[in-house]
Amino acid sequence: MTSQLLLIEDDAHIFQFLVPSLSAKGFHVKHALTKHQAEALLSVNTFDIVILDLGLPDGKGEDVIRAIRAISDVPILILSAKQEESDKVNCLNLGADDYLVKPFGIDELVARIRASLRRSAMMTMRDHEYQHEGLTINRVTGIVTKHNKEVHLSPIEHQLLMMLAAKPGSIVTHSQLLAGVWGQEYLSDTHYLRIHIGRLRAKIEDVPATPEYILTELGIGYRLI
Amino acid sequence: MHLQNLKHHIKDLLLLAAGLGLLTLLFHEYFSFLDATSIAMLYLLAVLSSAYFSSFLVAFITSVFSFLLINYFFVEPKYTFQVGSMHSWLLLLTFLIVSFVVSTIIKQLKDQKLNAEKSSAQSQFLKSLAESLSEQKNSQALLDTGCALISSKLGRAVIIVRLTEDKQCILLSHAGVHKFIPNQPSLRWAVESSKMIGTGTKDWPDLQQWIMPFGRFQTPVCALVIDQPPIDAKEAELLFVTLICNQFATAYFRCLSQEQVQKSEIRAKEESFKKTLLASLSHDMRTPLTAILGSTNALLDSQLNLDEKQRLDLTYSIRFESEYLIRASENVLALVKLNTGSVDSSKMDWQLPEEIISAVVSRYKARVDGQPIAIKLSQTGLFIKADALLLAQALANLIDNAIKWHTGENPIEVCLYQENALLSIAVKNQGKGFPEGYAIENFGKTSSDGVLSRGFGLGLVIVKEIVNVHNGLLEIQSLPSVGATVTMRFPIVYVDETL
């Protein structure tokens, strides 16, 4: 079955190459130029993924995310230019899943889309277990194993890992993690987060200096691959 | 005047009357065996004390009354005011001379003491004024503080005005219970003749203000105006306010000139930023853009009859130059971000450098044609305060440069280690090293030099700027035909690990 993809992009130079390239890669692409058009399309179709450009003419990215999240859990991938850095974090906090900064290559975009689709397929199968290479996380029992050996985590490390594992592949922002584990009043204490992510990596990564499970999104947050 | 003095001394006089009455009663009732000389001595004591503790007037009255009392009670013929002998007149004369001399000396001493106290208080005030003024961060704060201090010291409303070249009067600062407007013509007169005018001076004595102009050549022309000065102000007080005004003016103009220097420094920095930006735009962008435009034109030109290999070469060239432009524009964006003041070192986030290193290096590993890069972490778990994206940009620039000049077999190294209070991130490559005499500061000036191919300069300029906003140090070590090491050093920030 071909995946249904909604591209919300107003810049002709971008969608001119994105629409044919994505179609050629086997996606069924619908294209909206504005927030208004996107909402119309979302109300009558179901999509497997939404690709959203932040620089829309008729609305802030945040508004589009809110509108989408009001009706659907579809993965949202954000395309942003450098100037929209803080906007990007806001969008992730509002429930977007991933972002790509312009300029990007089509291969990179396709890889992100595929990863996202694979994850949402995995999540819809109600699979309670996250598995990647040697690492297994049971989201129900909370048991974490590495190469079939149980990994013992401190309560904070465990909470962090569970938050990341709830949305594997998606970026979880610093503030989401801080609010979720420590509470709203600790939003600026990123050093706590970094210390515990460091300890978590020391326990689950093969080489903590070059992490392969928990990836860093500089200035934004972390994601579990 | 005398009446006022009398009122002032009424307490003294009452005390005196009681004292003399008591003295007379005692002597008359119990010590009548004493002779007149002894009694006169004791009355002399009373005269002395009144001259010492009170004024000449009181001492004079004491003398007269003492004389009368002695004459009435103790000298023959007793109980009459008739003066019996020459001795009595001599006594009166002595009393009067003693009271005059003693009270005059005492008055002088008291005046001297008062003056000394006053001038010490004044110099104390001038000192504290100078101290408070020197602490002010800008000229407006200095004006306001100075105004408030002077107003509270003198207990009068004070304003500071500036006279523009077209004779407009601008209020710079004011303090005191009421705002007031200086008399314009007198203000102008004072400024033109540059002397203090108003109450107690020779000029405009009926003004009911003190106007003290200051500042003439190359400085703004201002005036300190004090409202309703004391009408009986003496020379000393006029001198005091003049001193205040001088001190104030000195501090104000010093502050103004410092501000001027700061402004011109900022302007110079902006100028150099513009130069770097323009140099980078022409240096790093025009060439690749020309290549892209040329290649696409060639590809679109149907008359060129390009073969498959040529078309492919041109397409690859477009991709190469575009990727180059991406990196160049990242640097230009970083430069703009650094120079628009949007990077505030106080708002920077806690960062573990090893996290940034691994994130940046992983980007290079993802490349197909990637050079091997080795990460060497001798120290982990130490924080610095940094902007993660800028730091990543700096590191990426250093790695880009290292890759460009790397010719050795071994991988490029990215090292993290602690050295005293600094955390160092070093990027090492093997290659021909930096050109001799290379200095980052010369970027943009030596771009015609063939050694500095494009992209070489701006990257390091950005690194330098990024290291600067993080209060760090940048160090370049280079050995010709061995390799180069560029090290960024940042202050370590220790954190409380209790949570």
Sheet with most strands of chain A = 5 strands, parallel
Q: What's the total count of β strands of chain A?
A: 12
Shape of chain A: globular
Largest interface: A-B, 21 and 29 residues
Topology:
The complex is a heterodimer of chains A (225) and B (499).
Chain A: E1 4-8, H1 12-24, E2 28-32, H2 35-44, E3 49-53, H3 61-71, E4 76-80, H4 85-93, E5 98-101, H5 106-124, E6 129-132, E7 135-138, E8 144-146, E9 149-150, H6 155-166, E10 171-173, H7 174-181, H8 190-204, E11 214-217, E12 221-224
Parallel strand pairs in A: 1-2, 1-3, 3-4, 4-5
Antiparallel strand pairs in A: 6-7, 7-8, 8-9, 10-12, 11-12
Helix pairs in contact in A: 2-3, 6-8
Chain B: H1 2-8, H2 10-30, H3 36-53, H4 56-74, H5 86-135, H6 139-154, E1 158-163, E2 169-175, H7 184-193, E3 197-198, E4 209-214, E5 221-227, H8 235-300, H9 308-339, E6 349-351, H10 353-366, E7 373-377, E8 384-386, H11 388-405, E9 412-419, E10 422-429, H12 456-469, E11 473-479, E12 483-491
Parallel strand pairs in B: 7-9
Antiparallel strand pairs in B: 1-2, 1-5, 3-4, 4-5, 6-8, 9-10, 10-12, 11-12
Any key phrases for this structure?
A: four-stranded antiparallel β-sheet; B: 499 residues; alpha+beta; five-stranded mixed β-sheet; 57% helix; elongated
Explained architecture:
The complex is a heterodimer of chains A (225) and B (499). Chain A is of the alpha/beta class. Chain A is built from 8 helices and 12 strands. In chain A, the strands form 3 sheets. Chain A has a 5-stranded parallel sheet, sandwiched between helices. A 4-stranded antiparallel sheet of chain A has the order 6-7-8-9, with no helix packed on it. Chain A has a 3-stranded antiparallel sheet with strand order 10-12-11. With 499 residues, chain B is of the alpha+beta class. In chain B, the strands form 3 sheets. A 5-stranded antiparallel sheet of chain B has the order 2-1-5-4-3, sandwiched between helices. Chain B is elongated and about 155 Å long. The interface between A and B is medium-sized, with 21 and 29 residues.
